[in-house]
Fold:
Amino acid sequence: MQSTQLSIDTLDRAQERFIDTLDQMDVSQANTMPKPIIKSVTWLIWHTARMLDLQISELKGDDPLWTSAGWNDKFSLDLPDDTQDYKHTPEEAAKVKVNDKQLLKDYLDAAVKLTKDYLEAVKDDELDEVIDESWTPAVTRQVRIVSSIDDADMHSGQAVYTRRLVIDK
Structure:
């Protein structure tokens, strides 16, 4: 088995959780932030796709799909393209809304495909390569991958919780 197969399987499960959660909601529910500090399912899916896109594109040395494939235009958010979404205030997070759930599914699918393609191509000896020395300890390619997959997994669970808050009032 390829060393990255567990990451691929974990990412598949996170994506399935996101899609199942989104399928149980209408657009209005998906865009709802149930409490000011709890982000919407829309934001959680968008942020996860964007985070995978940015992190993996950087590992590949490519421009992110967000701009290179025009996702920024498709979403047309009132936020700069370089927004640091992991730092979003509730007001900024509330700007992440869609009119069509398929847009979220499509961007998530593109980001997951980008990630899985990368995981299938990366060589084991590349995983130990230090890619960011600004942290202690320095971040390796493997650490960045695990962190990204873990973030996707965590946010998919948050989406399930948020759906329950919105639908099961």
Residues 141-167 form the longest helix (27 residues). The helical segments are 5-23, 27-31, 41-60, 65-68, 71-75, 90-93, 101-121, 141-167. The longest strand covers residues 130-132.
